[in-house]
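The instructor's notes for this session suggest beginning with a concrete chain rather than abstract definitions. Hand out the sequence below and ask the class to guess, before any prediction is shown, which regions might be ordered.
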Amino acid sequence: MNYKKVGIYAILGILFFLPVTFLLFLYPATHNYTPLDIVNENVSDITGFTSNTDTPVALKDHITVLSFVGSKPMERLTAASNLKELVYDKFKGFKKFQVVLIAAIGSEANAEQLRKEISLYEDLRFLHVIYGTPTQIDVVFNSLKFDAGLNDNYATDAVFIIDKDLNQRGRIDDRTDNDIEKKSKIYGLSAYDCIEVATIKNKMSEDLRILFTEYRQKRKGEFNSDTRRASDLKAE
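After discussion, reveal the predicted structure:
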């Protein structure tokens, strides 16, 4: 027996089958992933708000990261910087993606200063600042699912993911594996704290990636899974 030839064939076989095996492991992860949950429906659109652009700004038909910077936008500089660097810069090339900052009418100069602070002379054409009255801001915020309220300046460090159909996306069950093992009570995630870098990097970025995958598969006719909604969840 020619052991040298056997060894060569064995190496060639490993080199051929190893990548194939790796791709087979990846295939289920790509096509059978869990879609991002719908935690709330019928989010109010931002009609009636003014903006810093001549192009109309709307939530409908866009994948939006929505932030409330209120009447003193510069006080949200840290949150806005995290949002720009960890979310906007990563996803700005995706079709129909936008970041919308809701500010109060009368804070235009302060909001423009905030925008300049986070821009570093970079392209911010998919990051919009819109302005509304306290009533308009409350209407949009109150249409969202969130346990806390806006502060006295109509602002919060929490940001929200809104899909093209005005659904609020998040996690119905945000328990860790350890929580599940302990059978802890279910808790969800309907908003992302922009001050917490780990939350934005490890949770929000991943959730946005999943949402973009969903829409990409829908365009290709490959999406065949119903998105879980908060109303579908039964008490455990």
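Then share the key points. The CA atoms of residues 33 and 210 lie 8 Å apart. The first strand starts at residue 37 and ends at 40.
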